[in-house]
Design a protein that fits this description.
Distance between the termini: 51 Å
Number of helices: 11
Mean pLDDT: 88
Structural class: alpha/beta
Strand order of the largest sheet: 2-1-3-10-4-11
Number of strands: 11
Order of helices and strands: HEHEHEHEEHEHEHEHEEHHEH
Radius of gyration: 21 Å
Length: 322
């Protein structure tokens, strides 16, 4: 009886440490897949996720449905993904904020953005747009610097403390010496709404949110933090305007850690197929995202290197969330 008890206990312990596959990985998928997005509906990450979910679902032969869980600049929803079953039925779209910048500023981040995820692959690269109300006194970085030197108090909004938008503004301040007051918003939709409503006159927005507003003349773009965007090709980058910053800002797809390799391979192939689709390419480019598939292992290593670099930026700017 004692031997049987020990054996059963050992098997229970062993099963707790193994991946929680609900089925034979070769048969995957046999039911709907959840794409848990840590973004508000209508935001850039949400739009990207829905676009990919439709195409990938057709490739995989199962529908992919969306769940939005917002909060803490995307880290709450991302934590939910990290703690979900690693059976291939929960995936997410992660941006710079959730998987590169959060580890740089949250000393008690409830997930490890490298160890707690299986990286499926890169979706593409994008920029962050520095935008302003139509009547804002500056039209570019040079004008913004001149405005700051006059002693005018300048506030800018981002979609949260530790967001990519805040980092882009901090880099601008570090490199130019100007001072701006950060006003963090709870989500990018609220930020865009207040910018349009005149409650704030300067902000950083992701390309998916900024592009239609700039194109229809509701707001104006001052600079692109990152690469020149295919959706707003006339807007000069930081570097082109004298601010030394040329890093790519990437989007990628993730699943919980220790995902069975055959399942990860199927998801990766479906993502690559989606990014090669002409309609998906056109829509992503319209959102300011340059489609660029990079295999999961390679993207994971890139993330690890970028985290170390951005930690130094955060240290220099004094960005930390207690």
């Amino acid at each position: 009886m004692m031997l049987r008890t020990v054996t059963l206990s050992f098997l229970a312990l062993l099963s707790a440490t193994l991946p929680s596959h609900a089925e034979d990985p070769a048969a995957y998928p046999t039911r709907k897949i959840r794409m848990l997005l840590p973004y508000a509906a209508g935001g850039g990450g949400d739009v990207i996720g829905r676009l990919l979910a439709d195409k990938m679902g057709k490739t995989l032969g199962q529908s992919i449905y969306i769940e939005n869980h917002t909060g803490a600049a995307g880290t709450l929803g991302t934590q939910m993904v990290a703690t979900s079953a690693n059976d291939g039925y929960t995936i997410t779209v992660g941006g710079m904020t959730t998987h590169v910048l959060a580890p740089a500023i949250y000393p008690k981040l409830p997930y490890d953005s490298i160890k707690d995820f299986t990286t499926i692959g890169r979706i593409g690269t994008s920029s962050i747009m520095l935008v302003a109300a139509k009547d804002f006194a500056a039209n570019d970085i040079k004008g913004l610097i001149a405005l700051a030197k006059k002693g005018e108090p300048i506030q800018y909004g981002s979609w949260g403390i530790g967001s990519t938008g805040q980092f882009c503004a901090e880099i601008l301040m570090q490199q130019t010496g100007i001072k701006m007051e950060h006003v963090p918003f709870n989500g990018i939709a609220k930020l865009a709404g207040d910018l349009l409503g005149g409650h704030i006159s300067l902000a950083t927005l992701d390309m998916a949110t900024a592009t239609p507003l700039v194109k229809d003349g509701s707001i104006k773009a001052l600079a692109a933090c990152g690469e020149r965007s295919p959706s707003l090709p006339d807007v000069a980058t930081y570097q082109e305007q004298g601010v030394p910053f040329d890093r790519s800002l990437s989007w990628a797809m993730y699943a919980p850690a220790r995902l069975a390799p055959p399942i990860a391979a199927k998801l990766s192939a479906a993502l690559k197929d989606a990014l090669g689709d002409a309609e998906v390419k056109e829509k992503l480019l319209g959102l300011g995202i340059t489609p660029q598939f990079v295999p999961g292992d390679e993207q994971r290593d890139i993330n690890a290197r970028d985290i170390a670099a951005w930690k130094q930026v955060a240290k220099d700017a004094g960005i930390e969330v207690k």
